[in-house]
Amino acid sequence: MKQSIIFSLLLTLSFTACANSASDSYFTEQPANSKKEYESFRKNIAKAFENQTPKQWGENVTGVKTHLNTNEKVIALTMDACGSPLGMAYDEKLVNFLKKEKIPATMFINARWINKNLSTFKELASNPLFEIANHGLEHKPASVNGKSIYGLSGTNSVEELVDEIELNARKIESITHKRPKYFRSGTAYYDEVAVSVANKLNHQVVGFSILGDAGATFSAKKVEEAFLKAKKGEIVIIHMNHPTSDTAQGTINAITKLKQKGFKFVKLSDYKLK
Gene3D superfamilies in the record, alphabetically (predicted)? Predict the structure, then answer.
């Protein structure tokens, strides 16, 4: 499924390289022996994949999960909080609707969004309606050789990919006391070796079957139309970090209609993925 051109431009404008490494920043608050332990851990992961050369690049490469493994009339709502300069906000209207209607969701959260919205993140993580998933340390495409998409460079080695996944996982666990088990990269692009690395780090890689808002660029009508294409076991992706977009209203309209059609909304962890 292709993202829109507008989504591509938005990503290109939003995600610029940081002056300082996010991994270095992570360890400024950790004991010295913690960094030594982590470097050994990362080196061992890199060693395990050193002779593997990727042949695939895209949203749906081998190993990416895009559906719930069920014939029941259920939909998994997944929401990204990307942590870009243009995406640090919080769509309270959207989340309040989910709370009011008791609609579960899986939230893929980036480290920089957590830093900017720490109290909100803690509140969301404590709500049993929601489960927290990993959206990376710096919101990079998941590559082991620097493959790019939308003008954004992916992680350029296994070591950098490990940082992208593992350091955000540890950050989330340190706050919530629960390690995330799902990962979605920045842009949702991967090579198949990167997917295997994520699996080695005990993460399932989750894509989507319905592009719900194209990076929060769709009109409310287009969001609604995207949702209403849903069949059994779909995984929908939308964004919860753009409150000025039409994502909330389109999602509200669509969920109301889908519930009337007998659909139930679930978290990813409620079903096996395929």
Answer: Glycoside hydrolase/deacetylase (3.20.20.370)
Matching residue, tokens 């609707």 = 97
How many domains does the chain divide into? 1
CA atoms within a 13 Å half-sphere pointing along the CA-CB vector of 108 = 31
In a domain, 137, yes or no: yes
Task: Show the tokens assigned to 189.
Answer: 């692009």
Considering the domain boundaries, does residue 11 fall inside one? no
> 154 Cβ partners below 8 Å, 6+ apart?
140, 141, 142, 143, 146, 147, 148, 185, 189
What is the CATH number for 200?
A: 3.20.20.370
Query: What is the domain range of residue 191?
Result: 65-270
pTM of the model: 0.91
- What pLDDT, in 10s, does the model give residues 139-173? 999 999 999 999 899 999 999 999 999 999 999 99
